[in-house]
Amino acid sequence: MAVRKLKPTTPGQRHKVIGTFEEITASVPEKSLVVGKKASGGRNNEGKMTMRYLGGGHKRKFRIIDFKRNKDGIPATVKSIEYDPNRSARIALLYYADGAKAYIVSPNGLQVGQTVISGAEAAPEIGNALPMANIPVGTVVHNIELRPGQGAKMVRSAGAFAQLTSREGDYVIIRMPSGETRKILAACKATIGSVGNSDHALEKSGKAGRSRWLGRRPHNRGVVMNPVDHPMGGGEGRSSGGHPRSRKGLYAKGLKTRAPKKHSSKYIIERRKK
Fold first, then answer.
1. 48, exposed or middle or buried, with CB in 10 Å at 0-12, 13-18, 19+?
2. What is the pLDDT of residues 147-175, one digit of tens each?
3. What is the CATH number of the domain that holds 142?
4. CA end-to-end span of the chain, whole Å?
5. Nearest by Cα to 145 from 108, 195, 118, 185
6. Which pLDDT score is estimated for 203?
7. Are residues 66 and 161 in the same domain?
8. CB 189, CB 145: distance < 8 Å
9. What are φ and ψ of residue 215, in 5° steps?
10. Where are the alpha helices (DSSP H) in 201-259?
11. Pair 55, 173 in one domain
12. Residue 86 near residue 63 (C-beta atoms within 8 A)
């Protein structure tokens, strides 16, 4: 995966940095794994706007991704690497030996024609999903479950990876992409390798219109509003307004919003770096 910077032939091209799409091998998704996706535009069932700055954007189809990887012991061949408009990572189409088809999040280094497998007996190789009890210490993983059989919940975006650092009884210790260190049950599955499309973070849209294509409407800051509209509004000229806070008055920087008695807090060994 690489990025390309365009020549400044127009104002919109001047700062544009986009992916090369060189790893993508199919342009049409597998029809049996696609469903329609309805956009709400930030409106509720009464048609009232409940989320600001959403709406418009290109129509998308939703690709059904297999985050559970529960077809244990059945080898699958990678048929194609595809673009997915619903996530930053690329997706890979698998053809299982029993005739089933599935999409997975494509790890870095996965090639068309490669064979992947899931289950406790699987080798710790790129694209294979196995319980963390069977993964060697020090291995880089992604698509991590929080509860056995629940399906992957963590480390799914482009370029992300976690590292299995040690074992402790029924648990393994994982270093998360944020820097947080936490315990997860060793029976939970994870996929070997890091998520592909790691250069996604280097991309620049180049113009406001690309945000509109993604369904993001213009976002105006609280500081430029009037006092009636926002706690940070008002003042003469370009005065910045007081303590950073939300429209409802909640502090936006430094206020701890995590529930003090949250169930999962006991599994966190070291909090993420500030």
1. exposed
2. 999 999 999 999 999 999 999 999 999 99
3. 2.40.50.140
4. 30
5. 185
6. 95
7. yes
8. yes
9. 85, 20
10. 208-213
11. yes
12. yes
Task: Report the domain count for the chain.
Answer: 2
Burial degree of 72 (CB within 10 A; 0-12, 13-18, 19+): middle
Q: Which of 66, 92, 186, 86 is nearest to 136 (CA)?
A: 186
pLDDT on residue 257? 86
Q: Considering the entire predicted model, what is its pTM?
A: 0.91
SS3 sequence, 100-156? CEEEEECECCCCCCCEECECCCCCCCCCCEEEHHHCCCCCEEECEECCCCCCEEECC
Say yes or no: 197 and 229 in one domain: no
Residues 195 and 102 placed together within one structural domain of the fold: yes
- Residue 67 placed within a domain: yes
Rounded Cα distance between 171 and 237, Å, is 57
d(CA 69, CA 170): 21
Nearest to 215 by CA among 55, 50, 53, 37: 55
For residue 107, the enclosing domain spans 3-201
